[in-house]
Structure formats: structure tokens, C-alpha cells
Write a structure and sequence with these properties.
This protein has 285 residues and is mostly helical. The chain contains twelve helices and no strands. The longest helix is centred in the first third of the chain and has 37 residues. The protein is elongated. 36% of the residues are buried.
Length: 285
């Protein structure tokens, strides 16, 4: 950890990305306290404020810094609420997919044999279908919903974790400390949890960090296509979907601000993920 922190202090780009990401997480979590108004509270929304330009443009008002949308909701407030949904889906889906994948990967790598073959064949079958296609197909049958989307994306992304966990488990399962645990009678379950899991987490952490950004983009894409979060919930992808038709009619703020915020989130996470990959990979040090 000391070496990791030392490398972190030397990389100004990663420091900047971390500050931006922490700021985004903070304003998203406390959106109800920070946002100028609740964009989904009907008592605070008026159609008279529809399509207001940003405050610094002619016709803009100070309470809508980034302008307003067709329903009269402030773009800034909607972005803050929408980013909370995007981060929730990203973190929860990665946690679900990681838990399933790591568990199956360790079981396949440690026990081998028919169990290994069965799990890896299931992984090969799923790899034959793009994650986007799986998500679109399942969401088309299940309908919109935040938790439905978390389940679908999480269960569609377990393969990467499973293959990584399996490979790392195969590399250490015959190590001396594993053999010592077997000789003193430690159960297989405890060996997997106490000895195997802590020693395979490094590549898993790197994959999870990068995949959070991928899941956020996938959620935005599904919402853009009308298969993500419900219309009653804020979402960056849904904001972009509602605004892109008016992009060339002069209402550019409907797309530029939520799209820029989405890019900022994904770029910050990817920079941190690339740094973790380079720092934690002993072959690159």
C-alpha cells in the first residue's frame, strides 16, 4: 500500500481523475441537498420554464445554469440525479457479476475436472453472444427497471471475472501455503475463502475498475434505446435520448451537458483503471 500511494502521488493525471471522480460521487450521493431543485417533484417544475437556454445566453435565467428541458426541468439538477442512478447501476452490476464470476472461477480452478469443464463451457457459450445483445434481448422481455437492469448486466458480465479467477487459482492452488493448509485439515471451502481469494484479487480489482465504466456506458446505451430505466427515473442516457432529436434545432444544451458529464465519469474511471493495471502488474514494474 505504501508503494501504491507513492506511485499515486507521482502521477498527476491520476490524482486529477481521482479528484474529479470523488467530486462526481459526492454531488451524486448528495444530489437531493445540492441540486437547485428536484426535477421529478411536480410542484417545483413548470412548463413555463420549458426549453430555457443556459443562464449566460439570451433568454436564460439564473436558476437554470445549464438551461432546462422540454418539461421545464433544470439540466443541472437532472444531471446530478441522473448520475446517481448511473453510478448505482455501475457499482451494483459489477458487484453482482464479480461475485458470481469469482465464485465460479475459483470453484472451476480449484476442483478442476467435470466442474471446471462445465463452468468453462457455459462461459464459452455466453462469450459467443455480445453483452449488449444479451442485455437488449432480456430487457425487451423483462421491461424497464433499475434492478432488472442491474441483474441483467451483472449476470451478463460474469465471464471475465470467472476466467481470470480460474487462471489465477490454477496458478496458486499447488503452492506450498495451500498444501500446508490441506495437510493440517483445513476444509476446501476455508482454503478457497481464506487463502485463494486474497491472492487472486489484484487482477480482479483492475478488471472491476475498468468494467464499472463499461457498465455505466451500457446503462446509458440501454436507456438511450428506451430499454433502461423507467421514464420516471433520471438517467444520463435517457436525457441524451430525449435531447438528441433537438440537437440540430439549436437546443444543444439538452445533449452536450449530460453527454459531457457522462464522458467525464467514464474517462476518470478509465484513467484510474489503467493506472491500477500498470501499477499492480508485476510484469510492468
Amino acid at each position: 500500500m505504501r508503494e501504491l500511494f507513492y506511485d499515486f502521488k507521482k502521477d498527476k493525471l491520476v490524482i486529477m481523475a481521482s479528484i474529479i471522480l470523488m467530486f462526481i460521487i459526492f454531488v451524486s450521493v448528495f444530489a437531493s441537498l445540492i441540486a437547485p431543485h428536484n426535477p421529478y417533484d411536480l410542484t417545483s417544475v413548470s412548463l413555463m420554464d420549458s426549453m430555457r437556454p443556459p443562464a449566460w445566453m439570451e433568454g436564460g435565467v439564473s436558476k437554470f445554469i445549464f438551461g432546462s428541458d422540454l418539461q421545464g426541468r433544470g439540466i443541472l439538477s437532472t444531471i446530478l440525479y441522473g448520475s446517481r442512478i448511473s453510478l448505482l447501476v455501475g457499482l451494483a452490476a459489477v458487484a453482482l457479476g464479480g461475485t458470481v464470476g469469482i465464485t465460479l472461477g475459483m470453484i472451476a480452478g480449484y476442483f478442476g475436472g467435470k466442474i471446471d469443464s462445465l463452468i468453462m463451457r457455459l462461459a464459452d457459450i455466453q462469450l459467443a453472444f455480445p453483452t449488449m445483445m444479451i442485455a437488449i434481448t432480456v430487457m425487451a422481455f423483462l421491461g424497464r427497471g433499475i434492478f432488472k437492469m442491474i441483474m441483467v448486466i451483472g449476470l451478463a458480465t460474469w465471464v471475465t471475472y470467472a476466467r481470470t479467477a480460474r487462471g489465477s487459482t490454477l496458478a496458486i492452488k499447488n503452492s506450498e501455503f495451500i498444501e500446508a493448509a490441506r495437510l493440517i485439515g483445513v476444509s476446501k471451502t476455508k482454503i478457497i475463502i481464506r487463502h485463494v481469494l486474497p491472492n487472486i484479487l489484484t487482477p480482479i480489482i483492475v478488471i472491476a475498475t475498468v468494467q464499472i465504466a463499461q457498465v455505466i456506458m451500457l446503462e446509458a446505451t440501454l436507456s438511450f434505446l428506451g430499454m433502461g430505466v423507467p421514464l420516471t427515473e433520471p438517467s444520463l442516457g435517457l436525457m441524451i435520448s430525449n435531447g438528441y432529436k433537438r440537437l440540430f434545432s439549436g437546443n444543444w444544451w439538452l445533449v452536450v451537458f449530460p453527454g459531457g458529464f457522462l464522458i467525464l465519469i467514464v474517462l476518470s474511471i478509465n484513467i484510474i483503471g489503467d493506472w491500477l493495471r500498470d501499477t499492480l502488474n508485476p510484469k510492468l514494474n
